[in-house]
Amino acid sequence: MFGLNKPYEDVTGVKYICNEDFFAKCPALTNVSSVFLRLIGMPACNIYPNMFRYQSQIVDASNLFWLTHNLTGDVPRQFLSTCLSKLQWANGMFDLCNMTSVDPQFLNLGSKNTILKAVGCIFHGNFDQSGREPGSAGTAPAFWDVNMFPNLISEERGRDHAFAGCKLLTNYSTAASIGNGFWVSGKSH
């Protein structure tokens, strides 16, 4: 691992998991799976919206931040947007983190995404902070919409648990009612 034990703080005092140019000298990255896996001792911090702006070939971002409990803040629309023509694996990306909101165009930018294959557990355990109003976490991408995401695989890493515990999303009840609830339940990955 990188020896990350404290967040990067920008000039405005906002803390991030790393500085915005952390991956700048790695434009050919194709796999960022588990890069920030289990940073349990990391103090509360956010992700830079354009952390991977120099990369366009990332295929696998599965478990990117898995079990990084103190990763908080928004999952912005543009996060990994430079990789959408290649990204296939996003399963477990924010699994068991503490994200507070998500943009509905995350991983699609409002267009059909024919590349993405797996989103199982992508937001599992997020957006359920007690004391917050239902719907305050935003609207999740409609991964169940086969017109927008036609190539998601139907095995467990493809879709199961994608929104498990995400009760503050405005479309949580829709996710819970589709496909016998596989979006909010199913087998653990």
What does this structure look like?
With 189 residues, this protein is mostly loops. The protein has one domain (29-189). It has 2 helices and 4 strands; from the N terminus they run ββββαα. A two-stranded antiparallel ribbon has the order 1-2. The longest helix is centred in the C-terminal third of the chain and has 6 residues, at 172-177. The protein is globular. The two termini are 23 Å apart.
Uncertain residue segments:
none
- Strand-residue proportion: under 5%
N-end to C-end Cα span: 23 Å
- The tally of strands reads 4
Helix percent reads: under 10%
Strand order of the largest sheet: 1-2
Number of domains: 1
Alpha plus pi helix count: 2
Q: Mean of residue pLDDT?
A: 84
| Structural class by secondary-structure content | little secondary structure
Main beta sheet: strand number and arrangement? 2 strands, antiparallel
Q: What's the Cα radius of gyration?
A: 15 Å
User: H/E order of the elements?
Assistant: EEEEHH
In short:
With 189 residues, the protein is low in regular secondary structure. Helices cover 5% and strands 4% of the residues. The protein has one domain (29-189).
Q: How are the SSEs ordered, and which strands pair?
A:
Elements: E1 8-9, E2 15-16, E3 74-75, E4 101-102, H1 156-159, H2 172-177
Parallel strand pairs: 3-4
Antiparallel strand pairs: 1-2
Based on the model shown, name its key terms.
189 residues, two-stranded antiparallel sheet, single chain, two-stranded parallel ribbon, little secondary structure, 4 strands
